[in-house]
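Long-time lurker, first post. I've been practising inverse folding by hand and with some scripts of my own, and I keep getting stuck on stretches where the structure tokens seem ambiguous. Below is the full token string for one chain I'm working on. Before anyone asks, I'm not after the true native sequence, just a reasonable design that respects the backbone. If someone could post their per-position residues I'd love to compare against what I wrote down in my notebook.
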């Protein structure tokens, strides 16, 4: 049970919540990373298919999610920010210039970096791999 500390209260038609229970609702990396993974998968196949507009849109989502993770889980902040300034920035540049070879190199470095972070934080059981098939629910060509 969450102990409530007096303070600001939000009122809804369903319940009243103080700040502490609201803070507890913030997503951790277990909620955030599946969304990052899906976007990472989509923008690879969008770029490969030449749909650089979709790749750009899908690439921007993980950045916001990683920033959110850095706030809600400060233990990982330095690593998440390093990813944003390294792998993600390189991917952004490759997408902007529509440079498939640079994109593919940066993409693989992103996978390698992500898997290294998992090992560094004692989660070697989490190893991301690009799905062999593109997502079926989106048009991936221009």
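-- Answer (accepted) --
I ran through it position by position. Result:
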């Amino acid at each position: 049970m969450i102990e409530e500390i007096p303070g600001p209260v939000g009122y809804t038609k369903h319940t009243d919540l103080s700040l502490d229970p609201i803070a507890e609702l913030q997503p951790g990396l277990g909620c955030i990373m599946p969304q990052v993974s899906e976007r990472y998968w989509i923008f690879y196949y969008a770029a490969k298919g030449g749909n650089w507009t979709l790749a750009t849109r899908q690439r921007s989502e993980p950045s916001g999610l990683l920033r959110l993770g850095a706030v809600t889980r400060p233990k990982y902040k330095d690593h998440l920010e390093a990813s944003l300034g390294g792998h993600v920035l390189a991917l952004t540049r490759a997408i902007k210039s529509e440079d498939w070879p640079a994109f593919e190199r940066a993409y693989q470095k992103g996978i390698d970096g992500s898997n290294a972070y998992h090992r560094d934080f004692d989660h070697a059981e989490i190893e991301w791999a690009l799905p062999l098939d593109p997502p079926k629910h989106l048009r991936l060509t221009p």
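A couple of notes from the structure itself: The chain has a mean pLDDT of 90. The chain has five helices and two strands. Happy to go over any region you disagree with.
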